[in-house]
Amino acid sequence: MRFSALRILKEGLTGNTGWGPLWRTPEPKASYDAIIIGGGGHGLSTAYYLAKNHGLTNIAVIEKGYLGGGNVGRNTTIVRANYMLPGNSEFYSHSLKLWEGMEADLNFNAMHSQRGIINLFHSDGQRDAYARRGNAMINQGDDAILLDTQGCRKLLPYLDYDQTRFPIYGGLYHKRGGTARHDAVAWGYARGADQLGVDLIQQCEVTGFLIENGVCKGVQTTRGDIRAPKVGMVVAGRSGQVAEMAGFRLPVESHVLQAFVTEGLKPCIDHVITYGMGHFYISQSDKGGLVFGGDLDYYPSYAQRGNLPMAEHVVEAGMTLMPMIGKAKMLRSWGGIMDMTPDGSPIIDKSPIEGLYVDAGWCYGGFKAVPASGWCMAHLMATDHSHDVAKRFRLDRFRTGHVIDEESTGSQHNLH
After folding, report:
1. Does the structural domain 5-77+182-252+343-415 have CATH classification 3.50.50.60?
2. In CATH, which superfamily holds the domain spanning 113-177+253-340?
3. Stated pTM of the model
4. Residue 396 has what pLDDT?
């Protein structure tokens, strides 16, 4: 089944009776060439690129719930490549390029909207820091424009520029940044992987690993043992728990990050806006809801919900930045489980167990990294070598001290 304007017109005229399921529902086989644990954005993209780029089609994606039911559907949908440090910079630049070709590649509408991101700054020191970041982005081959106060006023006239505590000095404008429909990203990669022969197995929880003489030979699941010479662990905030099943520890802590959405409003916010002093970010969805978020809840948790004090903090920051949203009704909130690393940057590497590979520690960067994470994890699993744009995401950096501290907040998980 291929999507096109002609097909949509035809189905509309014939009662939409010709649409089929987006993917199969197969029973798990006894063995595969590779297994991906985790049916979220990163796991599905890994399976897709293993099949597309490396010709491995005898693959199973194992998901304990339903596809896309984890962090890929629990975020604020932001896509960007405005990183500065070597390691992150080239990786997220590669990811943004993949985002720009994703819909054509998958033949699926992910509602990717390059509406632009503006990071506000509020002091001379912050201006200098964003100027440096913008230069790093340009040197990487991405786009960046440094706006003064008047430049921000022209694009964002509804902000409170004269707030006494944090007046707005300007912003760093990343035009190619934007948003996408998080569910559609998971669905598109699932459909693409299925069409290449990948088995997508839902309601199948991994309960242990088949490890023989220090080598991973497969997984134990609620639907029986499944064997494979290569197993990829791509389980987002559950990374520490799943690694423990295999007998090793990851340098991660799991924290909750909340997101919020209001009732539908007429179009009023054209960009993604981040407010550094209040750690607040906001955009408007295609359905009209204002989607926004803030800081972590700052305590380890596996609950997909957050606490009320952090909700109050986020709303206060939003009101400080743009008082116009004060009368909007907040419909709901949700939480994603973030596996936070000490330096705030991810891990794509071999585990201490031969045949077991790890994709973890995405902190705040998980959604925007979906395409490049899958691309690089697939390359690692297929070749046993790190991809060039992910070669700094090794586990041993925490032992050697070659960390990637993008936010300069030190080596404490809950500060990232």
Report:
1. yes
2. D-Amino Acid Oxidase, subunit A, domain 2 (3.30.9.10)
3. 0.96
4. 95
